[in-house]
Amino acid sequence: MRRPRGPIFLERRSYRQRRLRDAARFLPILGAGLWMVPLLFALDGVSSSTSSVMLYVFGVWVLLAGLSALLSLGLDPQPGPGDESAPSDERAD
Amino acid sequence: MGIFNVLIVVCLGYVALLFIVAFMAERAAARGQSSWLRSPFIYTLSLSIYCTAWTFYGAVGYAARSGLEYLTIYLGPTLVVVGWWWMLRKLVRIGRSQRITSVADLISSRYGKSNTLAVFATLVAVIGTTPYIALQLQSVTLSFSSFAGVEATVPPFGDRNAMAFWVAGGLAFFTILFGTRNLDANERHHGVVMAIALEAVVKLVALIAVGIFVIWGLAGGIEATLAKIDASPIGTFTPSAGRWAGLTFLSAAAFLTLPRMFQVMVVENEDERHLRTASWAFPTYLMLMSLFVVPIAVVGLELMPAGANPDLFVLTLPLSQGREGLAMLSFIGGFSSATSMVIVAAIALSTMVSNHIVMPIWLWLKEDGGTVVSGDVRGIVLLSRRVSIAGVLALGYLYYRISGGGAALAAIGLISFAGLAQVLPAMVGGMFWRGATRAGAMSGLAVGFFLWLFCLLLPSFGEGVVLSAETFQNGLGGLAWLRPQALFGITGMDPLVHAVMWSMSLNTLLFIFVSLLTFPSPLERLQGAQFVNVFQHSGATQGWSGGVAQSEDLMVMAQRILGGPEAQSFFQAEATRQGLAGFLPEPIPDFLQRLERKLSGSVGSATAHAMVAQTMGRATVSVDDLLRVADETAQMMEYQSQLETKSEELARTARQLRAANEKLTQLSVQKDAFLSQISHELRTPMTSIRAFSEILRDTDGLQQDALRKYAGIIHTEAIRLTRLLDDLLDLSVLENGQVNLNQRDGVLSTVIDHAVAATGAGAGRMRIRRTALTEAVPIHTDLDRLAQVFINLIANAQKYCDAERPELTITVQNRGASVVVDFIDNGSGVPREAQALIFEKFARVSEQKAGGAGLGLAICREIMARLSGSITYLPGQGGAAFRVTLRTIRTNAAK
Question: What DSSP element (H or E) covers B634?
Answer without folding.
Answer: helix B623-698
